[in-house]
Structures are given as C-alpha cells and as structure tokens.
Amino acid sequence: MQRKERKYEWVDPVADRIARYFIRMQLRITSALNKGVAGWSKKTLTVSLVGFCMLAGGSSLLITGRSLFTKKAHKKVIRFDKMNLPRTQETNGPTEEEQKKWEEEIAQKVKIYQQVMDSLGEPVSEGLRDSLQMIEKILK
Fold it and tell me: What 3-state DSSP class applies to 122?
C-alpha cells in the first residue's frame, strides 16, 4: 500500500491547485457580474433572468428536438451485397477410381522404400516397421 501511496502522492497537490484556479476564476466572474448589475432595478433583473432562462431553455429544447425528430442523413459505413456464386457438384471425397489410384501409388512407394532400406542393409526401427505394416494392411 505504501508503494501506491508514494506513486500517487503528487495527485492531491495538483488537484488542490486546479481547484484553487477554478475558484479564483469563478470569483472574478461573479464580482464582474455583480459590479455590472449593481445599479439595475428589481424589475430589470427579473426580466433579464426570465429572458436568459427562456433563451437557455429554448436552445436546449431545439437541440433535443433536432436530435430526436430529424431523419438520419448519414451514409452507411458498411454495405452488404449479395454475391451469386456458381453452383458446384457436392462431393464427399475422391471418387472410387481416384481412391484406387492413390492407394496403388502409396503401395508402390512403400515397396520402393522397403527395397531401398533392404539394399542399404541398415536396420529399420520398430516404429517405422510397424507403420509400414499398418499401411500395407490398410491397402490390402
């Protein structure tokens, strides 16, 4: 907790300075207004107050009315268009002919690989041998 307090210890003095500045400005404005209207009669003050209230209220109602009752004139940011794509035949995978051709190619590659490994005379790991046997079983 002390670390956070040290981190933000500058906040209170800055907030105090800002508050003092706003209070000074308010005092200057109010004293200027008081000096300006000090000689006015009560009737003049009342009329000016009613006029100010009508002006402020009317402008507030005007802004609110325009925002509620005017039509939206802005353009759409994103536009969605329908796309017509060509229809294709739906397939669930390769045809039987393609499947047989693929299986034959794999079987030939496995046989070639076994011949190469046999010609080298190096031992084949059990995992690879098992994988080759599984492929052969699947293709048969």
Answer: coil
Residues sharing a CB contact under 8 Å with residue 135, sequence separation 6 or more, in sequence order:
106, 110
Residue type, 123: P
**What is the model's pTM?**
0.36
Query: How far apart, in Å, are the Cα atoms of 36 and each of 9, 29, 30?
Result: 42, 11, 10
Structure tokens at 69: 């009752």
- Confidence bin at 78 (pLDDT 50/70/90): confident
Closest by CA position to 111, among listed 127, 89, 135: 135
| Residue labelled with tokens 């107050």 | 49
Q: Report residue 83 as tokens.
A: 């796309």
Helix segments in the chain, DSSP class H: 2-7, 11-37, 42-69, 96-120, 126-139
Instruction: State both tokens at 38.
Output: 């000090």
pLDDT-derived band at 26, boundaries 50, 70, 90: very high
Angle at 126 between CA 122 and CA 130, to 5 degrees: 120
Which residues, including other chains, have CB under 8 Å from residue 99's CB and lie 6 or more apart?
Answer: 93
